[in-house]
Specification:
Elements (H helix, E strand, L loop, with lengths): L4 E3 L5 E4 L20 E6 L12 E6 L10 E2 L20 E3 L11 H4 L1 E6 L8 E8 L6 E5 L3 E8 L2 E5 L3 E4 L3 E5 L5 E4 L5 E8 L23 E4 L10 E7 L2 E7 L6 E6 L4 E4 L20 E6 L6 E8 L2 E3 L16 E8 L14 E4 L9 H9 L5 E3 L3 E7 L4 E2 L1 H4 L22
Parallel strand pairs: 9-17
Antiparallel strand pairs: 1-16, 2-19, 3-4, 4-19, 5-18, 6-25, 7-8, 7-28, 8-15, 10-13, 10-15, 11-12, 11-14, 13-20, 16-20, 17-18, 21-22, 22-27, 23-26, 24-25, 24-27
């Protein structure tokens, strides 16, 4: 299988896996070609403004509603367990990478929910999960009605087989599955580990560029959606469905990935983070981290995101008389940060690929002592930060960890130590 891709973020695509399967001139004709069934998948309200309306027409072998009642799913023991009910101290938190599974486990059953902000039933907020899987999803698929999923592989590639087609997502890239899209995951490298952001709010979109002009950051042409592909399998498939924070399961008599053709502007997509056009200063200081935003999910407050997906990629540092690592700060947004590869320029140790940190609203954070000393004494020649890729799921809401995350052996009890020992200012 060699997937083919269609380019452009939010573009309207038309694609068919079999010639003449896509109806011409009508979305839902009386008799679609080959006896296919027409189905509209809408991620926005029917009456959303044209510029924001996201939907696609799918032409499938069987109606998607052909299944029995759902019952509770018990397989994914650490996925969506609910957040902690205990009072949340305003502590900075950091977790080491999760351990590889002891037995065989696929992507969905390996998901370990770390934290969440807001309630998915309210249509706002974000959840952050980790995964460590070593088995393909076989005769089973997953669908999330609570929000869209952003997969951030850290070790091993993911092959996401979806209703729309196939996405290959390797470390250094992201894959996004819209709300309501059915898919299953294969592991081409035999095992995979990484992060998942679950956006319960407005659809991710590209940020406005404002004074930057018409180019820069993530360019629309670099986003890739799959061309039509389908799976014709008449055997029982399990369908796991996430709704209002709970997991449910039902059985289908066939593969749910049976869409032969589709058209529209709603589809899964992938993006190579190396294509991000980083913008920075050429004088002094450095911009706020918002300049590294790849995707944003807006909230009801203008300019304040329900979720921003932000990266810290390789880049040149040239600012004069400038403290080049992230400065000490307290801010409105809550920051859940991960590391895909390399070293993060604000932490000398303890934050390794696969790790996760949490700095909630107004908690003090910034570089550790060793990083501060090095950056304060550095000779400020042009320098290129290379071989690194960190990211954040940043939210206007407070992230509340799950009990299982707070009780995990991966929680670093000594995280606060990295801010100890700073010398007192030497006043005249």
């Amino acid at each position: 299988m060699h997937p083919t891709y269609l380019t452009g973020f939010g573009a309207h695509h038309s694609t068919e896996a079999i010639p003449s399967a896509l109806p011409i001139g009508r979305n839902s004709p009386q008799r679609p070609p080959f006896g296919l069934y027409a189905e509209q998948l809408s991620a926005t309200a029917f009456t959303a403004p044209r510029a924001e309306n996201r939907r696609s027409w799918l032409y499938r072998m069987r109606p998607s509603g052909e299944h029995g009642p759902y019952v509770a799913y018990k397989g994914a023991k650490h996925f969506a367990p609910g957040i902690s009910a205990s009072p949340l101290p305003p502590n900075r938190l950091r977790w080491s990478p999760i351990e590889a599974p002891s037995g065989e486990v696929d992507l969905i059953d390996s998901l370990f929910t770390m934290m969440a902000s807001g309630n998915p039933a309210d249509g706002e907020g974000v959840a952050v999960h980790l995964y460590a899987a070593n088995k393909d999803m076989e005769r089973r698929a997953f669908m999330n009605a609570d929000g869209e999923l952003v997969f951030v592989p850290e070790q091993g590639a993911l092959r996401l087989l979806t209703e729309f087609g196939v996405l290959d997502v390797a470390p250094g890239s992201i894959g996004v599955i819209p709300r309501g899209v059915r898919f299953r995951a294969e592991l081409p490298d035999g095992a995979a580990r990484g992060y998942v952001g679950e956006n319960h709010g407005e659809l991710f979109r590209l940020p406005e560029l404002g004074p930057l002009g018409s180019n820069g950051l993530a360019n629309p042409r670099d986003f890739e959606s799959p061309a039509a592909w389908f799976e014709d399998v008449d055997e029982d498939f399990e369908l796991i469905h996430k709704a209002r924070g709970s997991l449910w399961t039902t059985t289908l008599r066939h593969s749910p990935l049976d869409v032969v053709a589709w058209h529209g502007n709603l589809a899964p997509y992938r993006y190579d983070l190396a294509r991000f056009n980083t913008i920075g200063t050429v004088s002094y200081d450095h911009p706020d981290p918002s300049i590294f935003t790849v995707l944003t999910s807006p909230s009801a407050i203008p300019g304040t995101a329900n979720c921003d997906f932000v990266i810290f990629p390789p880049r040149w540092m040239v600012g004069e008389d400038t403290f080049r690592p992230p400065w000490f700060h307290r801010n409105l947004m809550s920051e859940a940060m991960g590391l895909i590869y390399g070293a993060y320029d604000a932490k000398a140790e303890g934050f390794v690929p696969g790790a996760l940190s949490l700095h909630n609203i107004m908690t003090s954070h910034g570089p550790d002592l060793e990083t501060w000393r090095g950056a304060s004494a550095a000779e400020l020649k042009p320098h290129k930060t290379e071989g690194t890729m960190a990211f954040m799921f940043e939210s206007r809401r407070v992230y509340v960890p799950t009990d299982q995350a707070l009780k995990s052996d991966a929680l670093q009890a000594d995280y606060d130590e990295c801010w100890q020992g700073f010398p007192k200012a030497d006043l005249p």
